Amino acid sequence: KQWYQRRVRGWLKARALAKARNWPELEKFAKGKKSPIGYKPFVDACIENCNKVEAVKYVERLPREQQVECYMDMDMPEKAAETARLARGSEELFERILSQVSAQNTGLRDKINAIRNNV
Fold this sequence. Notes:
Elements: H1 2-19, H2 23-31, H3 40-48, H4 52-59, H5 64-73, H6 77-86, H7 90-99, H8 106-117
């Protein structure tokens, strides 16, 4: 029960700090002792409050597969592809990335495929 309460409090604090746009305090909270909520809630809070630059700080602390998903959530498919190249099961990740990129955007699809082929 205590563990759950710590997680909920941590999650609420991260969301409140992001909503208040108190980015230095959010970073300080994230860098404190090991986060009881992981780093995905920090990413989500930053995205919800329109701060991709801040979100990237926390994305880099996630496992690669989650990083790819977060970069896609932030509409950064090239960065997602670069990260997918370094991940296990990258072929599946590339398929997910390409499925979210418009077929008409051939330039971006070509860049992603070029990154994919350098695996």
